[in-house]
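retry 2 of 3: previous attempt timed out while embedding nicotinamide-adenine-dinucleotide. Reduced batch size to 1 and resubmitted. Inputs unchanged:
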Amino acid sequence: MTKIQKFKMFIDGQWVDSESNKVIETLNPENNKVWATVPEASSKDVDKAVRAAQNAFEKSWANLHPRDRAKHLRSLANLLRDNAEHLGTIETKDTGKIFRETKTQAKYIAEYYDYFAGLADKVEGTVVPIDKPDLQVTTTRIPIGVVAAIIPWNSQMLLTAVKLAPALAMGNTVVIKASELAPVTLLEFAKLIEKSGIPKGVVNVITGLGEPCGKALTSHDLVERIAFTGGPETAKHIVKNSAENLSQVSLELGGKSPVVVFDDAEQENALNGITAGIFGASGQSCIAGSRLYIHSKIYDEFLDKLVTKAKKIKLGSPMSKDTQMGPLNSFKQLENIEKNIKATVEQGGKIRCGGERSSISNKGYYFPATIIECKNHNLPTAENELFGPVLSVMKFDNEKDAIKKMNDNKYGLSSGVYTANLGRGIRISKAVRAGIVFVNTYRLISPMAPFGGIKDSGYGKEAGIESIKEYTRIKTTWYNSSDKPMTDPFTMG
Ligand code: NAD
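retry 2 succeeded.
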């Protein structure tokens, strides 16, 4: 029997258990076995972490010159590069995502810390052309205070970096709450924080359930900013919690991203992009291109090619080099996908490949690449975010029809269009109601490119030059430049 590993939380520079000594068991999605335990933080633990962050904000971090904060971020970036392999291994155990991807991503995440380190000393204030004589008015960007970063189970390193890097660069301190479904990766990441020389209390990593831990954190009096990534239902709780502390909130939520393929598209490119968009990370990606509209002229031919490609995707152990799709993260995910597929088939959906849990499922939560033809996009798999390798496919007749269908969903995170007609690519990218549009490509990220949705996919942008300002507030200062005394208020006018 393999030994269960025991992890601790990182609060105020110390490695601690929860005050109740309660733990959460975490399962390896590959074999459904408990491989680790992490502390189950109570509201008392949350309070300790937030107070440590507040103390560090006041005593050290906010007052450090941005150049010096940047040095710490660069040191963290280098540690990430050196430890990418280890972090990738842990994230794979934690989430079931394939090692090739988790390792590559852990290394690339370093770029986010370098990018925001570079921006740290370039955020400037303004001089306001004020409408009054003998006065000068300036604005400066100041840090907000304690940031609560609430992280989902998938892409934790990335979704932490897009919050933590700009928050730290601007002088805020942070309490990160890892997901109870994959809590270990961020605790291992905290070891790099410790090594990087970032002062104690500046970054705290806690583990716990949505309630009480997440709730206590997002409603804590001393929290001034909440950066949330997760599902839309949780987001509603977060916004309610923020009414307790009136903190500024950003929400990165789910999606049901549409992709259209026109009859003039370069087909090999489209086939590869669509496959990456829905089957990469077993479809457990917020920008998964899960609704596909194929032009009626090429519908049968293109769909056949896609099905042939999907059938070849190799499902297996996420650590194995030749695996292309690993298991889903949880049994709950698997059951939800099955429920939606069953309902879709009952309403006329036609499964072209996959559709049933894999025979290796008795060990882990394996589900194969699945393609379902749907008569319309109101069928369950075509309408709901499934967070799995399930592609719902429909027809469209012309550009107007494509745009109408793309926009007919409550989410607005990502979208894609494949066409050889540049003008059409531009027209669609303008018309689609989504935060991100990919033209003849898909599933790309960069620290330089803003990321985030509209409609029910949330608000606030992460990454990109503008996002750094989301971790500042504006302070306005009035200077009297006159040598004369101020007018007596009671003799004015
Ligand atoms: P989730 O909403 O279930 O959980 C996210 C986090 O919120 C977890 O840490 C959880 O413990 C915490 N939480 C739960 N209840 C809470 C409460 N009442 N108060 C405070 N915190 C609470 O999401 P998940 O299942 O971990 O992740 C999948 C979802 O995340 C999908 O909907 C996916 O689309 C979305 N997602 C979005 C993006 C994006 O950038 N737009 C990226 C990745 C994932």
